[in-house]
Protein 1
Amino acid sequence: VNLIDKTLSFPHSPSFPSVKMLLNHERKRILVTGGAGFVGSHLVDRLMLMGHEVIVLDNFFTGSKRNVQHWLGHPHFELIRHDVVDPFMIEVDQIYHLACPASPPHYQYNPIKTVKTSVMGTINMLGLAKRTKARFLLTSTSEVYGDPEEHPQKETYWGHVNPIGPRACYDEGKRVAETLTYSYMQQDEVDVRVARIFNTFGPRMNENDGRVVSNFIMQALRGDELTIYGDGQQTRSFQYIHDLVDGLILLMNRNYKEPVNLGNPEEFTIREFAEMIRSEINADVEIMSLPPTEDDPQRRRPDIGRAQRYLGWNPKFSVYQGIRETVQYFKKTKSEQAWYTD
Ligand code: NAD
Ligand code: UDP
């Protein structure tokens, strides 16, 4: 009864992908580090609906219990406050290793901690994978390409990263995490997967997270100016969260071990993106320019040939569709907050 109740009360959005329940023998014990964050909580939803047993480890630095509260009390779900910088013992079949702040203001808040999270956290989770023979998936990032000199970016590109700049704690941390992942594969035969994720957005992004999608949507909803850093000619390619979750689960369960880009190749300049948000939400708001941020990558678009070929994966959501759903979410949380503070 509990299981059915929980599944029925799950807060689906209109476009939530249909999920096939697995047979008993197909169910696994799955660890999701960073599972209370934006991406992690959507991954948890999908794994839970498939019928897996899911254990979330999170230190709640940027994530929150609220993101997974609909699963609390479900017999297949466990939420554990734990920092991945410290070792953790458990028996599992698969590990999705997401724990790491992802937004520039958050990962730059305590750069040493960000490096420790990527390096020590990944060593701990790879050690766990080695001991339990669990399959291990690292959520790496397009930031390993830095400010790229190749466009669009293929997985074979080695990148162009400033090792001592303000983004280095995140970019180099993820590069070492990839190195560790393949070292454990070669030396200890750990079964690994690496996803290089490009800018992703959707409901449950933290509204104060500082990333461009949440900043522009919140500014437009409040009637404030949209803040462009620099001239706005830099580009990004935005993918909707449900597409990313499809790709992560496919990658984990297919037999392809090289890094795979997961992103939507629809590319916007940040100025075009600001104009799009303005026309979608509030035509009256102004767009203002602020100084550029240091080492901001100037162009970013994934080459998704590998994901298409080896995973049969393609993004299904247009950016517009994703933005509309995300705006609905932010409107709803904004009205709930107004209700709490009134
Ligand atoms: P997020 O900040 O919402 O989630 C990260 C989660 O990890 C949070 O719940 C946070 O509390 C937790 N965490 C951080 N440090 C931890 C630690 N030391 N121990 C335990 N938990 C810790 O970010 P997100 O957007 O959901 O990103 C998830 C993963 O995907 C990250 O690894 C990120 O690098 C990667 N990624 C995300 C994007 C994107 O656009 N969202 C792009 C590229 C890569
Ligand atoms: N950006 C912006 N205004 C904002 C937030 C971000 O112009 O309020 C720009 C930022 O300089 C970058 C792009 O938007 O060029 C994407 O930034 P974000 O922090 O979302 O992610 P990044 O890809 O840089 O990690």
Protein 2
Amino acid sequence: PLKTVAKMLALASVFATSFNLFAAPVEIKFSHVVAENTPKGQMALKFKELVEQRLPGEYTVSVFPNSQLFGDNNELAALLLNDVQFVAPSLSKFERYTKRLQVFDLPFLFNDMDAVNRFQQGEAGQALLNSMSRKGIVGLGYLHNGMKQFSANTPLKQPSDAKGLKFRVMASDVLAAQFDAVGAIPVKKPFSEVFTLLQTRAIDGQENTWSNTYSQKFYEVQSHITESNHGVLDYMVVTSDAFWKSLPADKRKVIKEALDESIALGNKIAAEKDNEDKQLILDSKRSQLVTLTPEERQKWIDVMKPVWAKFEDQVGKDVIEAAVAANK
Ligand code: LMR
């Protein structure tokens, strides 16, 4: 019954906003968990700028960064209650709504961001945008961040170096299995808690992109970063079916175009930040870079790749094959 009431309230507010009952501009909320100086942070601000420029007096966009409004644990639920209209969780955070997207978490699947992009823009990747339609979630596009690196308070060269260490992972069983494979202890925690967990040594390490490691200052509380490029951290920009359908078709079109352009800018920033933020971390000398020889990297692949087979049924063999093929 509580759920029904919540749903009715959500529908009523969608109804009220879609028919512009109060004649004030409709507020579109965009909530995310990262800082503003990140690909996602910049993308969201660009989206605000474009929507307000193109639909003046009709729509405003309020951007809430840094888990201010909603965090990892509740942003998708909030979306379905229409408490927020746009979120862009990392692809690892949709597990409760679809298992198919876990393809992106399989360790050492994509050679580089070009391969990730080819897969996302190809037939299989585009189909995945609709993988949560039955749950009322509409995928509007992919946004890049970059490849992930391991960080810890000890140099990780061999897979055995990770044994017994606690690593924060996003809420994804694949990512947990990836650390289980090297005898480490995965701990699922929301993004907003990672810095403190590392600082207090409640956990030993984490995996993330150069951008997140820089903007969250993880490098200040981690002695070593291993340039492993073992996985990808990208996003899906999503809205709810109820909100999306409530928009008049002509406005929806303008908003979608604004989103596509913002995503293009976000992707450009992602590519730049990947190098720049890495360099800023190295220049800070707070954290030491660990580079792997091809032989050392191969050892990580050998230990972690068996994880694929465990998730093949859930993710879909066809999806995995399409992703592998994107490496060319
Ligand atoms: C993380 O939780 O580490 C990332 O998904 C945060 C983000 O949104 O980039």
Protein 3
Amino acid sequence: ELLESEMVHFARALRPHPMTLQQILHLTDPAALRTFLLEELPIRYARRVQLVESLPNWKSYPSMRMIRSLYAEAFRRLRALTQDDNEDTFRRTLQDIKRKNANMLFHVVRGARAVRTNKSFTDDQVNRFLDEFLTARIGTDILSSQYLSITRPDSPTSIINPECDPVTVVRAAANDAATLCRHHYGWSPPIDIVDVGQVRFPFISQYLNYIMFELLKNSLRAVVERYGSRQAAEAYPIRVVICGDQDTVVLRVSDCGGGIPLADMDQVWSYMFTTAKPACEEVAAANSASSESDDEDSDDDGVAPLAGFGCGLPLSRCYVGGWLELNSIPEFGTDAYLYLNRSGNGQEALRTDIAELPVPESLLANGNSCDAGGGAPLAAEL
Ligand code: W6P
């Protein structure tokens, strides 16, 4: 059908334009941004459709069919718009796509775990599929959010905070994690925040909050399980150091929670693995027709568990763009290092190393910027 062949064309012949936070921060003219997005978003959605289709036998997985149809629909709706439609129509379309795709993480992780169980792929291949898929998703989400933010009727602003203050963000994340910890265990280990530098840099505060919340939840859980009480843990506070130079902001989270066995260090970055529930939970859910809960993170009491969906760490790494590192001293503790580009000039890591169809040279010649796909840039990307 016409839409299908147009989608194939967008996916294969056109290339997305990887962006930097600095570039997005300066996309403040709604009309100009809309013109750009009317072309850019369909390219990105079409590639997401192709990524799903690159999985052998994808049609036999309900989650994969669902994901594919959500992106095909987003593609169709954007292509149905023209420059002549007004800003409000465009705005409502973006909002609607965002709303309809709200449970995408749940669907794609569930689908990927099902694919994995059926042995068509290795853990490594499935993890790379999810890294690419979710990194790309974060990129489109930032671009859409930027448009929605700068056209907000009340207070138009960028999705990127040009003066993001990591200390403030970490304090908030630490408070939230501690509250959750107290809810589940009745107490929470101390968290020391060491602010050395008075750093301000362009970043998406919500993303930094999410990453630090994930890291701190892990540290809190480890310390709680190692020392039975606040009193016993008092001498071993979780320490967050925030510092850096002109180029890089570094955040280190250190805990004395007993560390991670070195043999398990790979699993920490796997979407297939979770300490909380069996890794095949999604498959079981998919197989029993009854369970259609979209609620990915809830306990019986409706409060988020301290260890939940099992994707916090790999997903955090997608939000950073690649430089989140975990070092363990077994039987002692764990250090997490987060490196962020202070200038906001790190390019979005649109990975193209898997599931990529060769693009004819002739199609690349005319000005579409091409993503080299190599190397992990120093973070701050989408
Ligand atoms: C742990 C396990 C972990 C994962 C991520 C961050 C910190 C920690 N601490 O024991």
